[in-house]
Amino acid sequence: MVKNNTHNSDMEFKIESELFALVKSLTNLNNKYQKGIVNEIFFRKALKSAMNNFLKLNFTLRENNLQLPDLLKRMNLSQEYSAVLDLINRVSTLNISDAELTSKNQSFLELPGITSEITTSFITLMDALTLEGMMKKDLIFNLFDELNSNLGKFPGLDDLSEKVKSLYNYTTKQIDRLTIDDKLREKLIDDLYQIFKEFQNKLNLKS
């Protein structure tokens, strides 16, 4: 039992270290971009790489039954985490440069931005269901709509979009129960997480 507790503590420490490093790296990356130290192409590529690592960390959190809000609060990192999500939202809506627009690979070049939008939508919706978001029904419905809209921008995700729509319909019917039933809400989050995993597997983001 002691050995198991030690293993859990070591894993939690490792996750906290990785989470801290990722949040700080994205923050520093944005600062360098704003100062003109790195150009837009490098910025977007580096952001995508950091996001892939961030996604893998989210898998690790779920697999070890760790709650992101608890970790962020303990690490005093909640504000910076929110700022990073805002950064991802802003970057994913940036216009592609003129050089990219003239490229025959324009559609391919747009996909990293769309991937970030979908990723952010999944994470934000799951966070809202975990945190105080259930007290704001309109917020939950709007986040579902945003997620489905973003999934529609990426080719070949019709099956995932249908699954999200099914969960949305379920949520509209059970919203009052979900507000007070922690187990039912956790089941909904787990279902979303499974769709999230399918999305990542399609993009080969999980190692």
Largest sheet: none
CA-CA gap between termini = 30 Å
Q: Which assembly state applies to the chains in this document?
A: single chain
Strand content: under 5%
Query: Spans of 5+ residues with little confidence (pLDDT < 50)?
Result: 93-110
Helix and strand content put the structural class at mainly alpha
Helix content estimate: over 70%
The number of strands is 0
SSE string, helix = H, strand = E?
HHHHHHHHH
The helix count comes to 9
Radius of gyration: 18 Å
> How would the global form be characterised?
globular
The whole-number mean of residue pLDDT values reads 76
List keywords for this structure.
207 residues; mainly alpha; 0% strand; globular
Describe the 3D structure.
This protein has 207 residues and is mainly α. The chain contains nine helices and no strands. It has helices at residues 2-34, 40-63, 68-74, 78-92, 98-101, 106-130, 137-151, 158-180, 182-202. It starts with a helix and ends in a 5-residue tail after the last helix. The relative contact order is 0.09. Residues 93-110 have low confidence and may be disordered.
